[in-house]
Every structure is written in C-alpha cells, then in structure tokens.
Design a protein that fits this description.
The protein has nine helices and seven strands; from the N terminus they run E-E-H-E-E-E-E-E-H-H-H-H-H-H-H-H. With 246 residues, it is an alpha+beta fold. The chain has a five-stranded mixed beta sheet. Bound molecules: iron/sulfur cluster and FE2/S2 (inorganic) cluster.
Amino acid sequence: MNLTLKIWRQKSAKDKGQIVTYNVTDISDHMSFLEMLDVLNESLVAKNEEPIAFDHDCREGICGTCSLHINGEAHGPDRLITTCQLHMRTFKDGDTIFIEPFRSKAFPIIKDLIVDRSSLDRIQQAGGYISVNTSGNSQDANAIPISKVNADESMDAAACIGCGACVASCKNASAMLFVSAKVSQYALLPQGRIEAKERVTNMIKQMDKEGFGNCTNTGACEVECPKGISLNNIARLNREYLMASI
Ligand code: SF4
Ligand code: FES
C-alpha cells in the first residue's frame, strides 16, 4: 500500500505544533500500525531528519502506553483494540490517515504524539489500592467467599489498562470511565470495602484537581475503550461517591 500520512509534529510542550504530510510506500497489510510508523521513522533517520516520537511498550494491548488519535478516533477505527493491535489491513491503498496525540488539558503534549498521562497515575495513587496485613497474618484468599457475578464484574473492571482513550474521546475530557473502573474493581470485593469511602472520595478529589471535565453521559468513552469498560461502572462510581458523602 502507498499512503499519505498527516502527522502532528511538535518539538516540545512550549512549541506550537502543526500537521506535517509524509508519504509511505510498499506498506504490507500484515504490518501493525506502529510497525508502519517504524518504517516511516527509519526513512526519516536515513535522511537525517528527526523521527516521529510516539509512545509504545508491550505492543500486545497490555500496557496502555500506545495512544494515538487516528482519523479522529482514539486507537483508530477498530473496536476493542489498542493502537498497537491495529493492523494496516484496516486501511486501503491510497488512503490519507490523520495521526494526532490524545488531546486533553490534563494530558499536556511532551513531544509530537507523546502526551504526559501521569495525571492518571496520581489518581491511582490517591486510592487505587487496598491495605493488606502482610506481617505473617495474611488470610488465605479462598477463606472469603465471593459471588461469581461480583468476581466477574470486578475482573472486567480490572481490565482497564489506563490508556486514557476515554479521556481523549470525551467532549468534556472526563476521566470518569477510568476512575470508575479503578473504584469498581475493589468496590465489588469484600477486601475493597474496608477503605471504600476514603478511596472514592480521594480519587474523585484528585481527578478534579488534575483538571479533567465532568461526565455528561454521552458514552463516547465506552465506545472507544479498548478493554470494553462498561458505563455501568460510572453508575457504580456515582453510587459509591454519594454513599461516601452522606
Ligand atoms: S477505561 Fe478504557 S479507555 Fe479509559 S483508561 Fe481504562 S482501558 Fe483506557
Ligand atoms: S504498546 Fe502496550 S498496549 Fe499498546
């Protein structure tokens, strides 16, 4: 395939960015999207030009590092996959593809397509954990019965990889889907009930402090989430927050 790429280039957080056009040729439809960018970068390096900076690590849909807005959609046009799992067979020969960073006030651009998503880490640090006694008195996990329904829903919420696509897709740049997944994975388990009030209060407080917008139930986050995190988690987050506030 021969493709025209329109890519956001920005030297640093302080610089003004712009869309730059590149042409790539002989791209195999078996390549992943990131491999296609690797090919472009190799050609740029060969010409002594600055390669395009983009985030990636596992390239298996696990780490949540890759984060591209492709043709206006977080992680591209396919559903339930991350950018690293997107393949070039999704596109046609001659296509023009727009590639931009995840945009949000809480995700400042570092360089080109890389944004700073440490705001999500700080929300997680505010309460996304349980305190466990590990001083030789820890309880056998199987001693606490948990219903299959709750165990399954908790596991589904725990699938969130913290990529931030929900924020980038939301017109309000809300992080509610992310926070709701992190709160739900514990709220559904007896081990998570002990610190439930502090957790939800502190995580919401940090979310607001980081400058994320509020949720207006448009549902774009659920559509673009690569891990299928359900909006039901936001309803649970609201219930947890209300109960903690009373
Ligand atoms: S809820 Fe989905 S889109 Fe949002 S950070 Fe988690 S995995 Fe990514
Ligand atoms: S590089 Fe790890 S999820 Fe894409």
